[in-house]
Amino acid sequence: MSGGGSGAAAGPVVTRHDLTAADDAGRLDLFVASALELSRTQAATLIATGHVTVEGRAERASYRPSPGERVQVTIAAPTTRTVEGEDIPVVVAYEDDDVLVVDKPAGMVVHPAPGNWTGTLVNALKGRGGALSDLGGEDREGIVHRLDKETSGLLLVAKTDRAHRVLGAAMQRREIVRRYAALSWGHLPDDRLTVDKPIARDPRDRKRMAIVSTGRAARTDFVRLARFDVVDLLRAHLHTGRTHQIRVHLSSVGHPVVGDDTYGGGGGRRLVTLPPKRHFLHAAWLRFRHPASGDEVELRSPLPPDLVSALASAAGPDSSIGNTDPLEYFGFFSDDDHP
Q: Structure pTM?
């Protein structure tokens, strides 16, 4: 398969992709989805609306291109949207003239995207006023890294372009320490486990990520802090920052995050009294060098009440977890695995 160029015509801006079908191209909709990192539904819609041709002719989504056939895909640029500030309260864990660290609640999307144009963290940050780096564009102002919608915890935001560049470079060099509390189904084979497997879009479902041999390198270190009847409490240390990395890595070893409907951990949510659409993953510990002073900044976020309740349920009726700081109690913030 080979990719072609892009071009613009009068009127709406469009991008044209010239693809060449390989021996194993399969169905047209799956071929287009895989080649352009689209969902199968998006690819099928493009085909149905006449934006995909095979050797200049229209074909159905089920058509199987022959090796070497030229497939052209025309995609109109998305309508420009203005991201408006909204009066949404945010919990600020740290703030100065250069950086801001938010303790994001579960259920909040980080930046606007199809299906979530409002109510996001970026809308909230713009609504509270003050400077934000615009290196990521209007819809991602200040965002240095992301957290999944149902993942809670500490998220780093840049208020100046210089801070964004410095923090982005530190992230690339793996100098920003991010550790997550996770509850996994079943029991890991050892108290320490490193999963070093590449991640990319799932070729069968573009809304998911998967372990793919040609994907981007991804490494996560896991330390078991406590073992309960049916779950383990883990500390996860990200060495890379791929989409859904912790969730995909745990699922790949047969121990998905509790409550994770996407990667196989949602079935027993009721056993630990987790609310619907919530998985047990919390960004609890963040450490970075300040982009202006160079001083180390270390921040900790306690488990939210819903996760404390779930952990207490997992530990059993005789546990006193609900009356303590569970992460402190189980040694989450010990530094024996500092890189």
A: 0.78
Are the C-beta atoms of 14 and 77 separated by less than 8 Å? yes
Backbone angles phi, psi at 264, to 5 degrees: 100, 10
Of 147, 312, 125, the residue nearest 238 (C-alpha): 147
Q: Are 264 and 287 in contact (CB under 8 A)?
A: no
Sheet hosting strand 70-76, strand order edge to edge? 14-20, 70-76, 52-54
- The helix (run of H) or strand (run of E) holding residue 227 is strand 219-227
- CA dist 285 and 139 (Å) reads 26
**Pairing outcome for strands 281-289 and 152-158:** parallel
Query: Do 239 and 217 touch, CB atoms closer than 8 A?
Result: no
Q: What is the pLDDT of residues 69-102, one digit of tens each?
A: 999 998 876 556 788 999 999 999 999 999 999 9
> What SS3 state is found at 1?
coil
Band of pLDDT at residue 1, cut at 50, 70 and 90? very low
DSSP letters, 16-74, are EEEEE--TT--SHHHHHHHHHT--HHHHHHHHHTT-EEETTB---TT--PPTT-EEEEE
End-to-end CA separation in angstroms for the chain: 40
* Cβ–Cβ < 8 Å for 189, 203: no
Which domains does the chain possess? 14-76 (3.10.290.10), 91-172 (3.30.2350.10), 177-287+309-329 (3.30.2350.10)
Rg (CA), the chain: 22
**Contact, 148 vs 121, CB < 8 A?**
no
Catalytic positions are 148
- Determine contact, residues 263/202, Cβ cutoff 8 Å: no
The mean pLDDT of 37-62, rounded to a whole number, is 88
Degrees to nearest 5, angle at CA 14 with 12 and 20 = 160
Q: Which of 27, 37, 29 is nearest to 214 (CA)?
A: 37
Which amino acid is present at 90?
V
Enumerate the β-bridge partners of residue 232. Answer: 184, 227
